[in-house]
Amino acid sequence: QKEVEQDPGPLSVPEGAIVSLNCTYSNSAFQYFMWYRQYSRKGPELLMYTYSSGNKEDGRFTAQVDKSSKYISLFIRDSQPSDSATYLCAMSGTGGSQGNLIFGKGTKLSVKP
Amino acid sequence: DTGVSQNPRHKITKRGQNVTFRCDPISEHNRLYWYRQTLGQGPEFLTYFQNEAQLEKSRLLSDRFSAERPKGSFSTLEIQRTEQGDSAMYLCASKRGFEAFFGQGTRLTVV
Fold first, then answer.
1. Mutating which of B4, B102, B104, B109 best tests the A interface, going by the most A Cβ atoms within 10 A?
2. Cα distance between residue B42 and residue B54, in whole Å
């Protein structure tokens, strides 16, 4: 079992839809949870981060972490064609080598106008 | 632009040649990471520097790979005797706290 599991999709939705992206993980030492957006042939761009459990909202994006279930989610409201990209979840422990990010495979999202 | 800078953006090389990539991190970040990303996969950790000290290397980093960070500033990643399996995007990230910021990557193609 990989440390971080993420459905690669692809996921296609109409413009304006609510998108739900998810990851599960197995390492209970993970404390920091991040979502990155990656456009084709570009580096990953940090979208949101959360420490431990809870929710965080930033504009149209909401990140949720449920440590008891080892499950994280990213919700995108009122999705736009410009949101079309690959979304990567990433997580890490605390400090030292535990600070290395472990990524999911990424989910490719396409938002159709 | 004060983000992470990587050069070159693209590199095509013949099998068996040596290649070197450069990463200039965000200046106040003391931690620097190298990752490798192949098509359809998330980035995989290669190695990590705290200032000039290389503190960890992944088992993915064979003895053909070497990384340096002289004076704790920019970093280089060298691949000797390249193989077709080395074809990938090589990503550099610098870190503030737990936020890692990535460069645009160097796409290596070994022919």
1. B102
2. 23
Q: How many CA atoms lie within 13 A of B5 on its CB side?
A: 8
DSSP characters over B13-77: E-TT--EEEEEE--TT--EEEEEEE-TTS--EEEEEEETTEEEEE-TTS-TTEEEE-GGGS-EEE
B6-61 residue pLDDT tens: 999 999 999 999 999 999 999 888 899 999 999 999 999 999 999 999 988 988 88
Q: Is A24 on the interface with B (CB under 8 A)?
A: no
Which residues 74-103 of chain A have a CB within 8 Å of chain B? 88, 90, 92, 96-97, 99-103
- Contacts for B73 with CB less than 8 Å, ≥ 6 apart: B24, B25
Residue B69 corresponds to which tokens in the numbers above?
């960070």
pLDDT digits (tens, 9 = 90+) for A49-84: 888 888 999 999 999 999 999 999 999 999 999 999
